[in-house]
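Board notes (copied after class):
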Amino acid sequence: MLCPVADRTYTAQQVDAAVRAISDPGRLRHAEQIVTHAAPGLQAIIDAALQDGGWFSQGHEQQVNAAAAEPDVEQRTSRLQLLLADEARLAMLVGVTVGIELARELDSTARDLDARPAPPTPEDDPR
């Protein structure tokens, strides 16, 4: 059963402690299984969020084209690396946001299922 994701604010100290706690690779195994299963749907959500946020807008395309056209090889490499790093950071942040909402939705669904009455068992049949 999933632990609920609280709808509250956290201090920087609490977030730092939580990040340290989940740094143990064993803590992430089940999450990896969930993400692997949900990857196609999550990919679509992340792509849409990046598009909606304007990350792949005309301005971004211009930056990519300008970096690729840079005549100096070192400058070109540096500019492309910066663009790739920025894109990776943004995608990570969007991914974390999606992950938090996925956890909330899974918890909500689990609570709804837990609140349903259990189906009758053969022992409950008065016949």
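Comment from the instructor: The mean pLDDT is 80. DSSP finds four helices and no strands in the chain.
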